[in-house]
């Protein structure tokens, strides 16, 4: 589904991504781990062109994203993104947060969008919050709304950038449970997280990123039980 070849991104003379190579298959769950500042967010943001790569190739469903003629908005519809800080529209109700893009961007009827929105809210356990405003929800609830909002666009892949890092510990589980269910339904997912339990349980493949390159990748078992790279070993010793 996604082929990444020699992806580089620099900010001025700061070479953040130094040649990333990765293929992601449909239905695969790829978890990206690595120290702060290693380029994980930049990598995700390059995938949906929130950042413009400096060089390399990103092919998504057969289209080269670095082709200047590409329709970025159409691309973004196919890639849902969930951020650390939820980024919900504060002056829209929960349900409106879910319906606004399908109606405006995909020309769905209000009725269809609301019906789907409510079904998605039910899926993340928040149907009863449909008419409330984001600020009256807990962080965990807001993040579940953010996931439902991304799903409302029927993306082919979901990108998660530390979706539980801003949450109080007691709310992490409810968000991971939604992500786990999504993975089981076959969604293609790229997840940057420090939740090693989630990585172990849900990832098909774990990528250890450091200093702008993929230092090591493998199954959760490879990475967590038999890491080969010294940097991977150091990192895991610190976080586990
Ligand atoms: P991670 O998500 O792994 O913590 P980031 O991708 O956020 O790492 O950051 C990697 C490096 O890129 C850092 O040195 C950061 O300062 C730099 N960086 C990220 N975004 C920008 C930006 N928009 N402008 C300049 N430098 C940036
Ligand atoms: Mg980051």
TrEMBL record:
Location(s), subcellular: Cell membrane
Keyword Cell membrane: yes
Coiled-coil annotated spans: none
UniProt keyword Nucleotide-binding, yes or no: yes
Xref: SUPFAM superfamilies: P-loop containing nucleoside triphosphate hydrolases (SSF52540)
Gene Ontology MF, one: ABC-type amino acid transporter activity
Name of this chain's protein: Glutamine ABC transporter ATP-binding protein
Species assigned in the record: Vagococcus martis
């Amino acid at each position: 589904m996604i082929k990444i070849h020699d992806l580089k991104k620099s900010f001025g003379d700061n070479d953040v991504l130094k040649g990333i190579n990765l293929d992601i298959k449909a239905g695969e769950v790829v978890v990206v781990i690595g120290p702060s500042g290693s380029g994980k967010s930049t990598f995700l943001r390059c995938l949906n062109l929130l950042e413009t790569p400096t060089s390399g190739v990103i092919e998504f469903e057969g289209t080269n994203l670095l082709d200047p003629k590409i329709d970025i908005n159409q691309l973004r519809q196919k890639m849902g993104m969930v951020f650390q800080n939820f980024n919900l529209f504060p002056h829209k109700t929960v349900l409106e947060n879910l319906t606004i893009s399908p109606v405006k961007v995909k020309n769905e009827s209000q009725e269809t969008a609301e019906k789907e929105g409510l079904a998605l809210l039910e899926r993340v356990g928040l149907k009863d919050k449909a008419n409330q405003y984001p600020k009256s929800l807990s962080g965990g609830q807001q993040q579940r709304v953010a996931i439902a909002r991304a799903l409302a666009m029927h993306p082919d892949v979901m990108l998660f950038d530390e979706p539980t890092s801003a949450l109080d510990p007691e709310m992490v589980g409810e968000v991971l449970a939604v992500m786990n269910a999504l993975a089981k339904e076959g969604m293609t997912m790229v997840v940057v997280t420090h939740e090693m339990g989630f990585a172990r349980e849900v990832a098909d493949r774990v990528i250890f990123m450091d200093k702008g390159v993929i230092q090591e990748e493998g199954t959760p078992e490879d990475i967590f039980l038999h890491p080969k790279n010294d940097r991977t070993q150091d990192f895991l010793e610190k976080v586990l």
